[in-house]
Amino acid sequence: PYAILANDMIGCCKQCPFCKTKCEHINPDHPGDHRVSIHRPQCLGGYRRLDTQIITLNSCTDSVAGDGTFQSKDTNDKPYPYKKYRDIYKDWTILPNSSRY
Fold it and tell me: How far is Cα 66 from Cα 2, in angstroms, rounded to an integer?
């Protein structure tokens, strides 16, 4: 009974690949994609510009709505369009912020 209660209290422990905000599903074995309603600035997940090493304050929802790229170990450190993030992170849904674009 304690394990079941702990799982319900902790929920899904997967983190957004960009800002590292925890998935908001309460069931660790939830069906469907991981999701977050409010993403944090990506610098809190360790993202920064490679050319300047300056942290990025963009949120994930802004990034997937724009025309920018990201690089990570998951892309073999090659630039990859944010708009195509689902090619790499198939189990995440990040809704684009369409109000800015």
Answer: 44
SS (H, E, C) the chain: CHHHHHHHHHCCCCECCCCCCECCCCCCCCCCCEECCCCCEHHHHCCECCCCCCECCCEHHHHHHCCCEECCHHHCCCCEEHHHHHHHCCCEECCCCCCCC
33-50 pLDDT per residue, tens:
999 999 999 998 888 887
pLDDT band at 56 (very low <50, low <70, confident <90, very high): confident
Q: CA distances (Å), 32 to each of 2, 19, 27, 90, 91, in order?
A: 25, 20, 11, 10, 7
pLDDT of 93 > 90? The answer is: yes
Taking the C-alpha atoms of residue 69 and residue 78, their distance in angstroms, rounded to an integer, is 9
Read off the pTM.
0.82
